[in-house]
Amino acid sequence: MGEKMPIGDKGDGASFRVLIIDDSVFVVKQLTQILQSEKFDVIDTANDGEQGVEKYKELHPNIDLVTLDITMPKLDGISTLERIMEFDKDAKVIIISALGKEDLVKKALITGARNYIVKPLDREKVLSRIESVLKK
Amino acid sequence: MRVEYINPFVESSVSVMREILGIEVKREQISLKSKAVPILDVAVIVGLVGQVEGRVLFDMKMETALKIVSKMNEEELTQFDELAKATITELGNMITGRAVTKLSEMGYRFDVTPPAIFSGHNMEISDVEIEALIVPIETSYGRVEINVALREK
């Protein structure tokens, strides 16, 4: 057996394409590093919800996954998620949340988010949650 | 002010800094301040609204802040730029999140504002209506002070 295939590899040599919506440059940097280390293609980032919805619409259908910060200025995570789900009911969105926002996370899961990750971002946790969303 | 409000913040600061930064962290003696207190070069402030109200402030010297954000980014940051600010904000989020979870387990319900950052020299903070409790935390990167002014509504 050879090496284990990177999680970001679709199996045909192409990578899963990810849009990161987050207002923190630190979190964007962390997520990008984790994702790129497993051969994901971070195709774009947006630092607020409005921009995130616009970019999703532009990229669709050439996008596989969105990571979405639950607390953001302008358009918050829940409203952003609602707009993305309205546009594409099959969108695969993973919520990124700080501890202590359980109510918002529940709301996001009801709204259509596939899974969630609680910060601080742990590499293994991030990758396993994303993998489980992509496999379904 | 009741000491039970400050403990979750002190405990989560100690545990988050130990875990995230992997450095020696030691809690020092608590002190009570009723007048204006000086704050160090970089301060992260979080507001609480609800059954418990007031604010929590974490402050430190610039040198300490830069060491912390450099460690968190795994690269040396020499300027307190956008990335450094976002990183310190994230540290504030982690500490507050853990403390808030503890406080809600104790039965207190409230909302937290996103952290705001102040940086500068010779700053001071005055809490006219609520006395402030200060717990210094000594770390191998320098001192971080946790300054809490909260009251039950």
Could you explain how this protein is built, in words?
- The complex is a heterodimer of chains A (136) and B (153).
- Helices cover 43% and strands 18% of the residues of chain A.
- By secondary structure, chain A is α/β, with parallel strands linked by helices.
- Chain A has a single domain, classed as Rossmann fold.
- A 5-stranded parallel beta sheet of chain A has the order 2-1-3-4-5, sandwiched between helices.
- The longest helix of chain A has 13 residues, at 25-37.
- Chain A is globular, with a radius of gyration of 14 Å.
- Chain B has helices spanning 3-21, 62-73, 82-105; strands at residues 25-27, 31-33, 37-39, 42-50, 52-60, 110-112, 116-119, 123-125, 132-139, 142-152.
- Chain B is an alpha+beta fold and 153 residues long.
- Chain B has one domain: Chemotaxis protein chec (3-Layer(aba) Sandwich).
- In chain B, a hairpin with a 2-residue loop joins β9 (132-139) and β10.
- In chain B, 36% of the residues lie in helices and 37% in strands.
- Chain B is globular, with a radius of gyration of 15 Å.
- Chains A and B meet through α1 of A and α1 and α3 of B.
For this entry, give a set of tags.
A: 136 residues, alpha/beta, Rossmann fold, 5 helices, 43% helix, B: 153 residues, alpha+beta, Chemotaxis protein chec, eight-stranded antiparallel β-sheet, two-stranded antiparallel ribbon, 3 helices, 37% strand
Domain unit count of chain A: 1
Number of helices of chain B: 3
Query: What kind of sheet is the major sheet of chain A?
Result: 5 strands, parallel
* Helix-strand string of chain A: EHEHEHEHEH
Determine the CATH superfamily of chain A. Answer: Response regulator
What CATH architecture of chain B do you see? 3-Layer(aba) Sandwich
The best one-word shape of chain A is globular
For this structure, what is the CATH class of chain A? Alpha Beta
Taken together, the total number of domains of chain B comes to 1
